[in-house]
Fold this sequence. Notes:
This protein is α/β, with parallel strands linked by helices.
Amino acid sequence: xxxxxxxxxxxxxxxxxxxxxxxxxxxxxxxxxxxxxxxxxxxxxxxxxxxxxxxxxxxxxxxxxxxxxxxxxxxxxxxxxxxxxxxxxxxxxxxxxxxxxxxxxxxxxxxxxxxxxxxxxxxxxxxxxxxxxxxxxxxxxxxxxxxxxxxxxxxxxxxxxxxxxxxxxxxxxxxxxxxxxxxxxxxxxxxxxxxxxxxxxxxxxxxxxxxxx
Length: 213
């Protein structure tokens, strides 16, 4: 942890429909600051932003909705079916997301925030973002539950399978984690796991700052 910040920076990731958003919300209720990569990604592709024009030029106006904004579902169907197109999209958006992320960190540093900052990002490991956090939490679930949740939410089994195939296997992500939250069970079980991880992160922060428990 750098000397100019008084918080521990924690990456939170998982896979499609593993329940990462649920875990993020629990961390929020426990007093953590949340930086949501998906929200940053939405900000950088708003009309008028440089990435918006570049994406339209790259993928065509058919990925726009009736309101003139990016239709994320249409764009997702294009890029998740073609790894090369997905890499091209990420080359346009990821640098801008990193700038926004750095700005959020600087704001927290300027505020003197002390505690746990959660960076919630679905492709954190795939993009190399896990190398820039102090600790990594991975949310997992069993494959059957993952697919059932994803299909129930999105309704398109083929699209779900493409998205799962495009991501690093959950087992590999879990091997890289400092902490794993298994969200296959009851909400109460997930809550208890997140509470334990939160306490461990606070202890880690105290140790880094050489403070007594």
